[in-house]
Write a structure and sequence with these properties.
- This protein has one domain: Aminopeptidase (3-Layer(aba) Sandwich).
- 37% of the residues lie in helices and 21% in strands.
- Helix 4 crosses helix 9.
- The longest helix is centred in the middle third of the chain and has 18 residues.
- 32% of the residues are buried.
Length: 234
């Protein structure tokens, strides 16, 4: 029997989520309990976590909000993109999401989050998910080669792996399906290793195109179809 439990987050989960936040982020980067509560209360169907069913420990969490993709074609910052109350959702374009934060201490727990979310996303009509990634290898690469541009680094590929990004964090998200590089943002968020750059990535939700069909499809069928596509994508 699996010891992993994945579900929508609730206010009662905040202590466990705070422990996860502080295990993954620096003190000035971790979200406060007030911010986490605000995210859950504003978009309860877009906040998901995986827990150990024996200990109750939070192993992974994902917070999202609706967003207009147009905002990522111009200079922006993480604080703006992550603001659950920001008025930047274009009318008629409520089909895209922004991943505010993905935190994890357990690789399988992250997979369980996306496996859980995909059928719900199809039912709700969501099309794609955007997120901002740091590029922690850039600072070190720039020291070795002062003429290296951020564009060159972001698009560099790992040797003998033609499609895999050179940067370890971009490579991590690449394996999770975030393979479209939308834009490179300067002064996106404070991150010394990335020289404060962030890269906006996009992941198209599998099978999201026939939107009217999924709205009338029973949820248990969506779970089966989504599980099959998730397995094939691994």
């Amino acid at each position: 029997m699996s010891t992993l439990q994945t579900r929508f987050l609730e206010p009662k989960d905040i202590p466990a989520l705070m422990a996860l936040e502080h295990s993954k982020w620096e003190p000035d980067q971790a979200a406060s309990d007030t911010v986490i509560l605000e995210r859950i209360q504003t978009y309860p169907d877009l906040c998901i976590g995986t827990f150990c069913s024996r200990t109750g420990k939070a192993l992974a969490s994902l917070f999202m909000r609706p967003v207009s993709p147009a905002m990522f074609t111009a200079p922006t910052k993480w604080k703006i993109a992550a603001d659950v109350h920001a008025e930047n959702i274009a009318h008629g374009h409520r089909r895209s999401l922004f991943g505010i934060s993905l935190s994890s201490n357990h690789a399988q727990a992250v997979k369980e989050i996306f496996k859980f979310f995909y059928p719900h996303a199809l039912k709700a009509g969501w099309r794609d998910v955007y997120l901002g990634s740091p590029i922690p290898g850039f600072g070190k690469a720039r020291k070795k080669n002062p003429d290296l541009s951020v564009w060159q680094y972001v698009h560099a590929k790992r040797k003998f792996h033609a499609n895999a990004p050179l940067d370890p964090q971009l490579r991590y998200y690449f394996k999770k399906g975030f393979r479209d590089i939308v834009s490179i943002q300067e002064n996106y968020f404070p991150h010394a290793q990335s020289m404060d750059y962030g890269v906006i990535l996009r992941n198209v939700i599998p099978l999201s195109r026939p939107r009217p069909l999924w709205r009338v499809t029973p949820f248990f069928i969506l779970e089966s179809v989504s599980a099959m596509m998730f397995w094939l994508a691994q």
